[in-house]
Amino acid sequence: MKFLLSFLLLLTQFVCISQESERALIESGVEAMIANDHEKSLELLIRAKSLAEQNDNQEELFLAVNNIGANYYSMLDYGEAISNYLEAYDIAINHLEPTHEMSVLNNIAILYSKEKNFDKAEENFRKAYRIADKSKDIIKKGLYAINLGGVLNEKNDLITAQKFLKEALQIFETEPGMLIEAKLVLSSNHMLSGRYDESITLSFQLEPQFRTEEYIEHKISNYLTISKSYHGLGDFQKAMFYAEKALEDNINIENKINVYEQLSDLHIEQNNFQRALAIKDTLLIAQDRLNNIKNGRLFENNRVKFEVQNYQRELLYQQEKIKDQKKQYYILLIGSILIVIIIGWALRNSFVKSKQKKILHEKAEELTNLELDKEKTEKLLLEKQLKEKEALSLLQQEKLKNEIDFKNRKLSAKALYLSDRNSLVNNIIEDLDKIYHVRRDPELKSHIQNLKGLLKTDNEWDSFIKHFEEVNHGFINRLKTEYSLLNTNDIRFLSYIYMNLSVKEISHIFNITPEACRKRKERVSKKLGLTHGSYLYDYLYQMN
Predict the structure, then answer these.
(1) Inter-CA distances, 163 with 149, 191, 196, 452, Å
(2) How many domains does the chain have?
(3) How far apart are the first and last CA of the chain?
(4) For the chain, how are helix, strand and coil distributed in percent, rounded to 5?
(5) How does pLDDT run across 107-131, given as a tens digit for each residue?
(6) pLDDT per residue as tens digits for the range 345-355
(7) Which of 66, 177, 365, 376 has the highest count of CB atoms within 10 angstroms of its CB?
(8) Whole domain around residue 149: which residue ranges?
(9) Residue 381 covered by a domain
(10) 8 Å CB contact between 189 and 161
(11) Is residue 101 domain-shared with residue 189, that is, in the same domain?
């Protein structure tokens, strides 16, 4: 009998999931599980579990653990399956709504069915069914009704099973996928009830829908039901045909055991004992393999743990209920006494409190006004001080600028004076050199040499540099440091530019034409990395 795991309803629960990455991992894990890629599915679900634990997200942790258990169930490792189901059950009852509890109860019930403990299976299926009914979750109610029908078939309680299956048929009337599940179990019910013709008719109606890979287990179960129905009718040839047809596909060990048992029974009834014995040997080998796969001991231990956990939960619930009743009684009694005392105390003190509140309010308002006035005064004083500091700073800056401009103008005037003087002296020397008797007179030649000495500008330049540096601190040193390509004349030229002398004035100082002066300006600008000479003064001003 094939039971429906709760992971089939996982996709309807994704609206509760908050973390996109965890949702994607769980969804991918379930898809891989349905595709029987259990290694990949477990890897994804374990990662989702780890993320859920880190984020303390109990909803996603439950989904991950529950579907890890579903993986182990599909792999026939029932010990690991129930271990994970118990963990999911613990999360559900301690942190989540009852709707989560019913999912894991359904899965645990399936494990009980696999261990042939049909009473416990029915008990847990019914618990899940009741929670679904109370929660008005119609889809899950229908799913658990199908599972109840299956386990009641196994217990031979066929009338009750039929009642649940008819309910499932009504619920899933518009759900083709789930309707198939209900009809498959109903076909088995017909066969067990001796209604072989009804069973065969229903099974043949279902057969065309089981031709895809995802319905392989349904197909095998359907063929077995048909085989057993023909067996019941005494048609051994057809019974044998459909039993052997069930072996044509790649089926799991449990299904093989069921088919081998059916074939063995058919051969025994036909007195074909040798063939029956051979099938029995194959059956024993398959059962041995199944027992090796199952972790029976771990399942039994965890099953007991589950029963103890249920018992402890019920006991705790009763104790909490009694405790709550006592607590409510004492709270009511103490509350009544306190209410009487509080009312009397309130009436006595209401007037006093009202008066005190009024006084306190007035004082608080007065204090608040004083604090506001103080803050306003401090703010105004601070603003005044800031404005005074700003004004003083501006005055100091303006004064310093004026002083520098004045000194630079003096330097400019001195430079222009020296230039005019040198020009005049040079003209006098040239005129004297043209007079013959002056050139022959040693005393006059001595005076001419003295005049020529005045034309040497080194000392004048050194004096100019000294005064310029006093006014413009570090300007020339900065030029020499940052621009090693500049020569002495370049630095002298830049100093005059910085003093804001015109091209005409600078050309006069250097005793060159204005055009030559402009070319020198362009050449020096390129040494400073400027594209045009018109930017030179602004650049020098910003640099200093």
Answers:
(1) 8, 16, 19, 136
(2) 4
(3) 96
(4) 85, 0, 15
(5) 899 988 888 899 999 999 999 999 9
(6) 888 888 778 88
(7) 66
(8) 97-193
(9) no
(10) yes
(11) yes
